[in-house]
Amino acid sequence: MRFRRAEVRDLFEIVEIAKKEFPYIKNPVEFFLKRIHDGNIILARDGELLGFVDFSINGDTLHIDGLVVKERYRRLGIGRALLTRALEEGRKMKLRRARLMTLRSNTAARHLYESLGFRVVGEEGDVLFYERNL
Questions:
Q1: Residue range 60-76, pLDDT digits in tens
Q2: pTM of the entire structure?
Q3: How many domains in the chain?
Q4: For 50, what's the count of Cα atoms within 13 Å in the CB-facing half-sphere?
Q5: How do residues 69-114 score in pLDDT, each as one tens digit?
Q6: Residue 131's CB: how many other CB atoms inside 10 A?
Q7: Is residue 44 situated within a structural domain?
Q8: How many CB atoms lie within 10 A of CB 66?
Q9: In angstroms, rounded to a whole number, what is the distance separating the alpha carbons of residues 49 and 52?
Q10: What Å distances lie between residue 77 and 80, 81, 87, CA to CA?
Q11: Residue 81 belongs to a domain with what CATH number?
Q12: Considering the domain boundaries, does residue 47 fall inside one?
């Protein structure tokens, strides 16, 4: 498995797996093309796209905006490796903290985030907001 920044040639693979996980993104091609140009997507590949982490930066904070692993590759440590890579990027940029959010019902994601040191700092309905220092 190799990790690298997403490139335009990866766009349609990214959109294909993102559509299922993020159906609320109205124009996923335009959305992810901008994210690719911003350099804010890290991929995990092994002949095909296994998953990706999408992040943004606001002030001194790394925001994890999306973490997706293809269903058949889940529970193999790919999500952990992708999230760890994003956190390393934040540290290299001298950011102070990382934030993300997930649904209360997404117990697998919650377990992963908490195992990497994220703690709940707020909630709104079924949405939990997590944060950790970098």
A1: 999 999 999 999 999 99
A2: 0.91
A3: 1
A4: 18
A5: 999 999 999 999 999 999 999 999 999 999 999 999 999 999 999 9
A6: 17
A7: yes
A8: 19
A9: 8
A10: 5, 6, 15
A11: 3.40.630.30
A12: yes
Token digits of residue 95: 């950011």
Long-range contacts, 43-49 (Cβ 8 Å, 24+)? 43/3, 43/4, 43/5, 43/6, 43/10, 43/14, 44/1, 44/2, 44/3, 44/69, 44/78, 44/81, 44/82, 45/1, 45/2, 45/3, 45/4, 46/1, 46/2, 48/13, 49/10, 49/13, 49/14, 49/17
In a domain, 78, yes or no: yes
Residue with tokens 């269903």: 71
Q: Which residues contact 118 (CB under 8 A, 6 or more apart)?
A: 98, 100, 130, 131, 132
Structural domain boundaries, residue 84: 2-97
Q: pLDDT digits over 1-17, tens only?
A: 999 999 999 999 999 99
Is the residue at 124 inside a domain?
no
